[in-house]
């Protein structure tokens, strides 16, 4: 029961990043560059404090990891200028899965047929979400979210073999923060106390503490259960968008979401089948 509750809290924290970002930008409380910069700085400070409290402080510079994290954070923030919370989370989630699948193909991993099928279904779902039409999202914003998905997918691929996930995440936040700060200085978009507060909440709590909790419970969950748990993130984000932002879930989102999540579930079941045969 304890691991279930901790997992639920972590998934709510991950989904809350979409809701908080959209809430701040939709009301004009802060600009996207400012939100990303404050989120990264506050997240870096929280994660660094956790690493120092643990007593093993190592903040090695990983340029590819820090760059991928910066792409994710900036693409995520700028995309939410136009995208609804649930739609953005779904595009992000589907894009991350496709990116990681492409990484597996490029590294010549053995890929079961079911995983190919699952990736194809998820890609079809993304295509349906982005197809032109009256209910189609802003393509520029969707492209930015797909860029964010690519950044997070690469970041996740790099982190699979991390010996110290919390320490490396803290280091990447610390090194990615100056990139976002420089962009903020260049763009010079506005801020308010409310917007900064929402960005700090997203950075320090739902990102910093959320990631720390995730890495703590991940060994107890295992890879397959962890992946299935993350299927709930777009659903929670969509529910948060409806309840807190008055967003509407239309037929396109329902069908596209079913295809994306169904495709990911198929891919995960391929791994379970292969493990069972062993």
- Tell me about the largest β-sheet: none
Percent of residues in β-strands = under 5%
Ranges where pLDDT stays below 50 over 5 or more residues in a row are none
The number of helical runs is 11
Give the N-terminus to C-terminus distance in angstroms.
29 Å
Gyration radius, rounded: 18 Å
Characterise the protein shown here:
The chain is mainly α and 278 residues long. The protein has one domain (2-277). It has helices at 2-26, 32-54, 63-79, 85-106, 113-130, 139-159, 165-187, 193-221, 223-230, 232-245, 251-277.
List the helices and strands and how they pair.
Elements: H1 2-26, H2 32-54, H3 63-79, H4 85-106, H5 113-130, H6 139-159, H7 165-187, H8 193-221, H9 223-230, H10 232-245, H11 251-277
Helix pairs in contact: 1-4, 1-8, 1-10, 2-3, 2-7, 2-8, 3-6, 3-7, 4-5, 4-6, 4-10, 4-11, 5-11, 7-8
Name the features.
11 helices
